[in-house]
Specification:
With about 140 residues, this protein is an alpha+beta fold. The chain has helices at about 20-25, 30-45, 45-65, 75-80, and strands spanning about 1-10, 85, 95, 110-115, 120-130. It has a three-stranded antiparallel β-sheet with strand order 1-5-4. The mean pLDDT is about 90.
Length: about 140
């Protein structure tokens, strides 16, 4: 089985997020994601906004991609705390997740992610698939 989730987020919405308290950001992002986004904000507010927007769009896209695989209701904010993006040394985004996520899913899945952004919009596409079921 294969499913795709796509989301777009306007970066202007996230310009003030670098000023949010860490406790508020941790409701949606992992500490690693927050550190990455804030390091962009130290460069300039636009870079920080792009990073927050792309990470938020990822959370929305992964939620959409996983929806058919949920065995039970999984609230969005709970999912946010179970799955996150890390950058590989090459800069390619890599999906990471806590093993507790498997308890909500009907099967073990693999993921692919693509993230892009312009000055005003971040777009993320996530593919969730069970490699055993692919032809």
């Amino acid at each position: 089985m294969l499913n795709i989730g796509i989301d777009a987020a306007k970066t202007n919405r996230f310009k003030s997020w670098a000023k949010y308290p860490n406790s508020k950001l941790l409701r949606i992002f992992s500490q690693e994601e927050i550190d990455y986004c804030l390091s962009g904000a130290q460069i300039n507010s636009q870079s920080g906004a792009e990073r927050f927007a792309s990470r938020f769009a990822f959370k929305e896209a992964i939620f959409k991609a996983l929806n058919p695989f949920f065995m039970q209701n999984l609230p969005f904010l709970t999912l946010c705390n179970l799955i996150w993006i890390e950058n590989s040394p090459s800069g390619q985004p890599k999906i990471m997740y806590k093993t507790e996520l498997n308890g909500y899913l009907s099967q073990k899945l693999n993921f692919s992610v693509s993230i892009t952004h312009t000055l005003d919009t971040a777009i993320v596409a996530v593919i969730a698939y069970n490699i055993d079921k692919m032809d």
